[in-house]
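Lab meeting notes turned into a lecture example. A postdoc, R.K., suggested we walk through two folding results consecutively so the class can see how the record format repeats. The first protein's sequence and structure tokens come next.
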Amino acid sequence: MARVLTPRAEDFPRWYQDLIAKAQLADNGPVRGTMVIRPAGYAIWERMQAEMDARIKIAGAENAYFPLFIPESYLKREADHVEGFSPELAVVTHGGGKPLAEPVIVRPTSETVIGEFMAKWVDSYRDLPLLLNQWANVVRWELRPRIFLRTSEFLWQEGHTAHATDADAHDYARKILHEVYEDFMVGVLGIPVVVGRKTNRERFAGATSTYTLEGMMGDGKALQMGTSHELGQNFAKAFDITYSAASGGVEHAWTTSWGTSTRMIGGLIMSHGDDNGLRVPPRLAPIQAYVMVVKDGDGVTAAATKLRDALRDAGVRVALDDRVDTAFGRRAVDAELKGYPVRVEVGPRDLTAGNAVVVRRFDGSKTPVPVADVVGQVLAALDEDQQRLYDQALAFRESHTVEVSTLADAIAATATGWARVPWSAVGVEGEAEANGQGVTVRCLVHEDGSVPDSQDLPDLVAILGRSY
């Protein structure tokens, strides 16, 4: 396998690019900074969508769709928002061969256009809360693109809500943060995220509070996996989102927005991948068990097909590989690269002994198992290895996070991982100094790990790291 992928320890960025190419997850698009997501990569995204969408609906939000093109004037209504996004905007100035009367922005995010329609749809307190989500593409012109991590166009979900009170908006932003995002990332992706508050310097343009979920990648760097924002009344005032209160007066709504994207695929690769390729957590995997015919012989293909059907009947997402005209070694390497959690290898020799071989992607173990016991063994392996992936990632993060007391020590520690340092030892000036050295405050947390409501509270802990 060393000939297939550059070893992670030798060159982590090259390993990442090799894996994406060799596992056939994605390719570079024809315009700089764009990507083509291949079927193997898109199948993972579809599973992410399904898991996330179910949680979003449980949280009460409904899916809708809003235009890709946004009038330039919309963005200018919220000053901080347009200033924050200006360097990343793609602007259309011509259409149908003629100059446009007003330039239009290719959607970088949808607070402004959704705000416009919230103002139309909300009249009374009875219309609130208004809970919307859309699955879409967005465009942010990236100077240093990297597939899945930073591309000029990417896929995501973005939620937008309007509420009657500040407290209701606050509670809903936190609900999404924990019950949708954290639950999915920990329980399905198997990534032990740190959930915290962004500093004022790092928060979303136009927000009053930004909450984040930070994952540690296999090289010790941080990846922002998702964010949830309280927008206060900033966008409600800019777009006149008002409602008739129960008391009879007219008040501005309080809004939130929140999003995750195909960046999570990059996080999946860098959190769980190894020198043999991708390792997909069983709860996420589009193919959980891959039944392979090693070599055709008396009854081998029939036995493999029967195992495929039995696994499917047991609720396992399963596929059959009976391409005996392709060398088995080549097919096995491909399965390793794609990260199928379990392989069931069926060959004439093992079948004669009444066995199939169960191969676990987590650790590469190969175990001959009686054919009658294969389904039970596979189900047990899927449950165990989901937890083992999480435990391994958590142990890595803990071993690469150090407790320090000064900014200088924190910056030094980010050469190999993260630093936990009192926020009082960093502060606004220290944060600017760290940024100048390529280090950011990933988030702020209370000493017990809970999420603070302000960066001005006492005894906060800052998590510092280098990031993607």
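The second example is placed directly after the first for contrast:
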Amino acid sequence: MQQNFYLGIDVSRGYADFIILDENKKVVEDNFQLDDTFDGHNKLYKILSGFLAKYPASNILAAVESTGGYENNWLKFLSACQSKLQLSVARINPFGVSYNSKATLNRIITDKQSARNVAEYLISHPEKVQYNNQDYYASVRRQWTFIKMLTKQKVQLLNQLESLLYIANPEVLQYCSNKMNLWTLKLLRKYPTAKELAKARLSSVCKIPYITESLANDLINNARKSVASSDDKTTAEVIIALVEQILQLRKLIVLQTKQLQASCNIAEVELLKSFKGIGTYSAVGLMIEILSVERFSSSKKLASFFGVHPVFKQSGDGLSGFKMSKRGRKQPRELLFNIARFATVHNPYIKEIYAMHLQKGMPKMAALGAVMYKILRIVYGMLKHNRQYDPEVDRANRAKHKDNINRAKEDYTRRYQPMDITAPVSRRQLKKRKQKEQSQILKPLDAESNEKIFTGSDSHCFPEET
């Protein structure tokens, strides 16, 4: 009979700790540590080969946590060993490992204990682990992350430039209310301060692309009446240096984005681009987070992964309001937020959904959160059924949901006993029960059976006694 053993790996920079447990969480191979080098990888192969020779009818299930890339070398090596060894390897979420460890009341945190926590998680939650998954988005993820880093750097430089313009050339800021245009950057590269712009000739300013004669005239006149408090040479040099860096980053971002579009010939990306509001960059960003839609059994699971699912707390009499969970990493939610913000303007169906939530009295940010959840459900359906975006599909699903929305779940939980107002409950609960009883009395009677209409499931519930 084949027996499974579990290899837990805690990866650190330059080395990793290992431990092997059996199905009963007993230590079979005690902790050992190897370096992330050629010799360390070879030693691991010899150890695993010797272990499987000792237990011939066995299989090793190994896992590493996602640690920002330090685990990739070990993961690639173990994946290559699968052709020669009875070995399966997985990359798992450290969030689940951490909570599983807390459930066992472990208070000691060491590399050795962390490796054991990984192995125990594989044993306790086998349904949460997917082995031998190939990451088709590895190279695309690196380029996408690089573009994101460049964009962040550009925003930081723009913020710094704006703060300098406020004291050196504040009149130009009126043309940068939405974004810093290319002509503005080229103007500042040539005339960084209001003092220099005031001395410029009209013909020289007009030579800058996209600057008309009237605009050039306004710029010069405004500069002559400027309230700028700084016009020294050092401030001008800093502004020129910032502008040069921003222009270089703009070119690099455009180049990398074009390369991303040319190299990303993935069917799922093209499918997502059929949704108006999702471009190549956003589609790639969604897919490197989702990886495979088969990882999620429902759209609710996907929403939970992104941290946009609604949550509320109900215990006894207490009930807190609904809100977005915001669990997990914030980067996927930032991407989804930008998609939703664009779609509420340019996608007619999403714009309709957004307006509907606003009419219900929801704040704008809360309505935008509801739109994020809706978009993610649509994305799940598109990927699950391999179907391009069609708003009529979601309209039909919404209509179907409205037909069943009156079915109350709390009635099903009380199917064995109706609520009793004489029970020793709190005043708040007693008030709820009286309101419930009053609503049952006011319900219309069934014409044939002369019994109260019951809102629960007919196959599991019984009418109240009269």
